[in-house]
Amino acid sequence: GAGVSQTPSNKVTEKGKYVELRCDPISGHTALYWYRQSLGQGPEFLIYFQGTGAADDSGLPNDRFFAVRPEGSVSTLKIQRTERGDSAVYLCASRGGSDTQYFGPGTRLTVL
Amino acid sequence: LAKTTQPISMDSYEGQEVNITCSHNNIATNDYITWYQQFPSQGPRFIIQGYKTKVTNEVASLFIPADRKSSTLSLPRVSLSDTAVYYCLVGGPNYGQNFVFGPGTRLSVLP
Question: Are B84 and B39 in contact (CB under 8 A)?
Fold first, then answer.
């Protein structure tokens, strides 16, 4: 595809439920990033993949958050036992050979 | 982590040149300076990136002084559609947590 795509665009869930958010990076991009953005704030780094492995997961807020990228392309961000404070826009970005990250449109997660 | 400081908001009128300055006093030797633009309900969009001196593309110019402790994004002849939040970031080749977004500058372009 031409850009980074994320699905779903919107996700509404109930407190305590499990959710998965998907990111399809730009074809050929080896680096993939997840960010979380709350209203009125800049994106907050969560995790960075280089290929299949998590090169830096220091931004994950707690062990309820987990991300995978098993084949070095598509990535899934998984959130267990969701809490109302997890409500935010989750952004994915990918990077190829340059130093530029290209962002997707985000998934808006609402935890009721 | 290289922290950036930029004005929270700016107002301008259509057709004017807008300059947004960002301070990054503790920038590291291998850090690049990157600016992103974000519209509501969209992901950030890359505008321009530079390491030193001046960089220009079809959208903007980026001015970086010799000490690299600040940078200025210049948007020529802004239009209403340039109303957005602009983020200045510094980061090296192994981004990760080093790629830190601040609150950005909310630019409002008025008719």
Answer: yes
* Cα A60 from chain centroid (whole Å): 10
Q: Which helix H or strand E contains B13, and what residues bound it?
A: strand B9-13
Give the DSSP letter of residue A22.
Answer: E
A99: nearest CB among B87, B93, B101: B93
Distance CA A43, CA A33 (A): 11
SS3 call for B106 = strand
Extract the residue ranges of chain B whose pLDDT is less than 50.
none
| H or E segment to which residue A44 belongs | strand A44-50
Nearest Cα to A51, choosing from A66, A76, A68?
A68
Q: How many degrees, rounded to 5, is the angle at CA A103 between CA B93 and CA A82?
A: 105
Q: Alpha-carbon Rg of chain B, whole angstroms?
A: 13
Interface of A with B in 23-82 (CB under 8 A): 31, 33, 35, 40-45, 48, 55-56, 58-59
Instruction: With beta carbons less than 8 A apart as the criterion, state whether B82 and A18 touch.
Output: no
Closest by alpha carbon to A95, among A5, A24, A33, A47?
Answer: A33
pLDDT in tens, B24-42: 998 888 888 999 999 998 9
> What's the start-to-end Cα distance of chain B, in Å?
39
Does residue B100 belong to the interface with chain A, where contact is any CB pair within 8 Å? yes
Distance CA A12, CA A5 (A): 19
